[in-house]
Design a protein that fits this description.
The protein is about 40% helix and about 15% strand. The longest helix has 16 residues. By secondary structure, the chain is of the alpha/beta class. It has a single domain, classed as Alpha-Beta Barrel (TIM Barrel). The strands form 2 sheets. It has an 8-stranded parallel barrel, surrounded by 7 helices. It has a two-stranded antiparallel sheet with strand order 1-2. Helix 3 links the parallel strand 5 and strand 6. Helix 1 crosses helix 2, helix 3 runs parallel beside helix 4 and helix 5 packs parallel to helix 6. The termini are far apart. It is globular. The protein contains 11 helices and 10 strands. Bound molecules: NADP nicotinamide-adenine-dinucleotide phosphate (NAP).
Amino acid sequence: MTYQSAPNRYQVQPYRRCGRSGLQLPSISLGLWHNFGDVDRHATARELLLGAFDRGITHLDLANNYGPPPGSAEQTMGRVLASDLHTHRDDLIISSKAGYDMQPGPYGKGGSRKYLVASLDQSLKRMGLEYVDIFYHHVPDPDTPLEETMGALDYIVRSGRALYVGVSNYPPELTRKAAALLRQLGTPLVIHQPRYSMLVRTIEDGLLDTLAEEGVGCIAFSPLAQGILTDRYLGGEVPADSRAARAAFLKPSDLTAAKLGAVRQLNALAAERGQTLAQMALAWVLRHQGMSSVLVGASRMAQLDDALGALKRPDFSPADLAAIDAALALQHAG
Ligand SMILES: NC(=O)c1ccc[n+]([C@@H]2O[C@H](COP(=O)([O-])OP(=O)(O)OC[C@H]3O[C@@H](n4cnc5c(N)ncnc54)[C@H](OP(=O)(O)O)[C@@H]3O)[C@@H](O)[C@H]2O)c1
């Protein structure tokens, strides 16, 4: 059936400015790290992409290595763009990245100009795009001069392959240096993509301040700690269709008794606020003024609808925040 986008899609959620740039992102964005590979059902992936678009989720985040196998999430994106979303290219913010292992040999990972430019060309081919909206260096590479990596990002924008550039997993000082180098080259650092959730709060120790000072936007990845901050594992079981059962990056051994104790306490606090745990976890990430968007994953549409519900109750009183901190302290108990 021919896809018709929902006419009210821009009324579903507020858009937030990305740092000091002109770019606006949806409060909730969708990542294609899991559930969009060749191993996954195409019909479900298509339903998620179109359902997301209908809910104002204009930003879809990819990387060269998402799948499995690596590259196949970009192919899935390309397939749905060709079949359904081709008339909406100008309504979409599509990002990709390179930095982690993509292919064997010296040109398949890192931060060299050679790898970044070639990898992006491959990504564009897989997605059938002329340009991506955002291109990231995925992870710092201590063996490549930062000048070379930032020079490659500048070249990527000037050559028309990307409209904006960002960095991911960069610590505060390196981010500051990257922003300065890019500024000198005339291509601003527009966005940073760090891991951030109630369970991983590293960015509160300097990165958020650095980004505010530099005027760089922030999009938090794994805000639900890959599903731990949802009702997925609350009962202490690992459902067969869950990420902890199926994927390599979340293991049942990550679900320690102390962590689940903290999560159950958080769940009770969320219920008092009239939210699901996932909704409270996302609203908590978005409470920072400098947070441009929150980047969720989903294996089914109900999870995206749950996520969007977070926007109905965004406020936290000092007492709410203190109760959340006290619940989080339980993960270190015992
Ligand atoms: N830059 C980087 O280095 C980096 C690293 C990681 C991720 N990312 C980006 O961030 C995106 C999001 O990461 P993530 O997938 O780890 O995010 P997440 O939102 O923390 O976890 C998503 C997973 O949690 C479960 N879930 C989500 N909503 C739920 C709900 N309402 N109820 C129950 N379970 C729910 C689902 O897993 P199941 O249903 O399968 O159990 C879902 O796939 C990625 O797709 C990628 O774009 C970037």
